Amino acid sequence: MNYSTYQNKDLCKIRTITTFLTLKKNKTFWKDEIEKACNFCNELTKKFNENNYEVQSIRIVTNAFAEYLDISSLESAKADLEILSNHLNTFANEGLRIRFAIGEAKTINEIELLPELIASYGDLCNACVNVPINEYDILDNELIRHCSKAVQKISQLTPRGEGNFNFTVNFNCKTFIPYFPASYHDSKLENSYVIGFETPDLLVHVLEEFNKNKEIKNHQELFSQYYKIMNQALQYHVNNVKDILDLYESEDENFSKDFKFVGIDSSAAPSKNCSSMTKVYELLGVPYFGAAGSVEVSSLLTKVFKGVENLPLVGFSGLMLAVIEDLGLAKGTVKNNYDIRTLLTNSAVCGIGLDTVPIPGNTSIDKISALMRDTGTMAFRLNKPLTVRLFPYPEKEAGELTEYESDDLCNCAILEVP
Length: 418
Prior knowledge:
Structural class: alpha/beta
Largest sheet: 9 strands, mixed
Oligomer: single chain
């Protein structure tokens, strides 16, 4: 294999530069804080662009929204979000997508506000709920049931239920996740930033190059080589990112003044505009995701993402299987290659849980809550971050095809909830 082929920077995108900041009740400071975050992200984007790395989005994550929004009523909360929306639009960089997360909802009252807020502000109102366990490792089911109700209501308030793209339920998730909507910030921590990657094209490329001339037949040796080539390719770009950040900091003494670098999320973070992670499974010898051998490959890929060095790993830093953000996974639902239980099984050795999973619109609160409890139980028992982001599709049943119109979502078959 010609190892220099993975050095093509078009194969590795910077999915996001994500800043984490604290907002307070005094609205007069909001504009300055938003401006600082936008300016920081824009300047860092220029540095990446100068080094031939494409930055796809910049993101701003805040502390829990009840700490700064007026949530005394739905109207007052909407009014405050309108102020933030205007600030974000003022500082938007033409051609570069800005996404905003309002932090976590901590109480039942706050959860009940989310469907209307998401329906009104969409991608400027990403939010999550962190569900805890008690001393017996039992999840807070009352909180889960209210999350399930919010998921159902979002599906009813937004066209085709697409608003659930902006809401997730977290289990055992720490702060500094750069990907939405699982992101949240703790106001006790200093303002920070994280770099997130998009690397499915890179993985596919190096595997295709290696497979052209592979002569290894022993399975252990073959998989060891697969690990090495994927890890080496990813490490090359991680090292480049480190060099860019180090150079920027040495050239500009004010670079880290407002936002402290805390790490990278090494997850592949697939989208509908890059290679599918299912192609990676095929190149590693599995006929399709969901076939025998899938769990082994999921485990190998997780080791690759967690095996990079020289920069701290935060967030998920693992394998993401986002059903309706990945064209291959979406096509797999039509072919009945896998089901929800397959996703849960693979979550035992990777991330991210049940992410962007379309389900029938009439799925009961009990079933949605049970899925969340299963996922949460795995997260805490296995000590890993997992999330649930379900998409009940109004007036459609399992097996029917979705008709999403969002640029972020792939159409697929709706999965049955067993």
